Each structure stands twice: as C-alpha cells, then as structure tokens.
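Recall that a protein's primary structure is simply its ordered list of amino acids. Everything else, from secondary elements to tertiary packing, is in principle encoded there. The following example makes that idea concrete.
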Amino acid sequence: MSIPRVKLKNLYFKEKLSTAEVARFFKCSERTINYWLSRYGLKKRSISEAVYLKYNPNGDPFKVIEKPRNIDEAILYGLGLGLFWGEGNKKNKNAVRLGNTDPRLIKRFLDFLIKILGVNKSRFKFGLQTFSDINTDVALKFWLNELKEFDINKNQFFKVTVTKSGSIGNYKEKSKYGVLTVYFGNTKLKKILDNMLASVAQRQSNSMVNNFAHFDGNIRVNPELRLKA
C-alpha cells in the first residue's frame, strides 16, 4: 500500500495526528505508516514530544514575549527572571515552580508568568505548606484573598501539606500563613525559562570579562596608573 507523501506530512505534522491515528485514517497498520515516514525522510516525533503533544493538543499553553516592548515589560521581565533565579526550583525539569511566604513576591511572579510568558492563569496550580500550629482554613483563605485579582479558585490548590511545628524562631511569624508554591507544569516552558536565565548569566559574565579587560588595559597603558617601585 502506497501512502501519499503530501497527505502523510499534512496529517502528521500540520494536524499533529499520532502514527496510530494516521494509520486509522488510511486503514492500515501503524507499521506501514512508520515505514512511509522513514521512506520519505520525515522525522518521527520523540517519545517526549509525543507525550507533550498528547497533553497539549492545541499547541503550547503559553506565548512568550521574546523582547520587552516597553519599559514596564522590561522591568517585569527582569524582575521575574530575578525572582525565579533566587527563589525558583531549578532542578525540576517538568514544571516552573516558585515558593515563598510573601504574597507580594508571589503576585509579581504570577504577573511575570502571565504578561511575559503568556501563561493562562487558569492553568496554574498551587501548593500550600503550613505548620501544625497554623489553622489551614485560615491560611488557605488568606492566600485565596491575596490572589483574588488573578481569579484563582480553591480547585487550583493541591491538598494542604502540614509540617509539625518545631523551634523555628522568627520564621514562625514570617510564615504564619504558610509557604505558597506556584506550579505550572510544562517541560517546554521550563526549558525556555532555563535558557533565558543562562542567556542572562552569559551576558553578565561577558560584561564582567570586558570590563576587566578594559580596566587591565588601562593599568598597562596609562603610566599614571602604574604602581611605583
């Protein structure tokens, strides 16, 4: 059985059907579809790409602003990256995560995710960790009230995690409503965010090297700056 290249390419790449779905369309085996993909030199999706597509059939659930368009976006762009760099979970490869006790910090990071990374706020999930001497209902109500400007609802919260209270000193006062963690599960956006951080770090490194080279050059060529023996 011969499979038309144009139709195969359209179904697999444009309409993003799986090989099994393409096979059903042509009423043939999946093995036949794999054969013709290889025959035409059409690269199959990797397992991770196939899984991503399965959970995001309508495409990426975000739209990143590549370059700030005004001063407000530039400030939020830098602030968001700085917050994630300092407070975010960089080890997790499958989700963008940031936790803190300060609602102001959490809200600014949500602004960054929504306005710069183009995340739909209905896709956010939240994890609340409290101590055993904290009323979980009060803590949850506090955070829902703080996040009301984002239309966050209770269904977006995981079950509250309660940790046994210990000798935590002043931290107890700072975390009287617990630690809230923002989750957005998306491997692709996490990789993009990691690359954004790496790019900033590289620019800073290059700037430091250039400044040092310029400073060192002045030491060598300017007699007035040379140390006297």
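The two ends are 88 Å apart (CA to CA). The beta strands are 95-100, 125-131, 161-163, 179-185.
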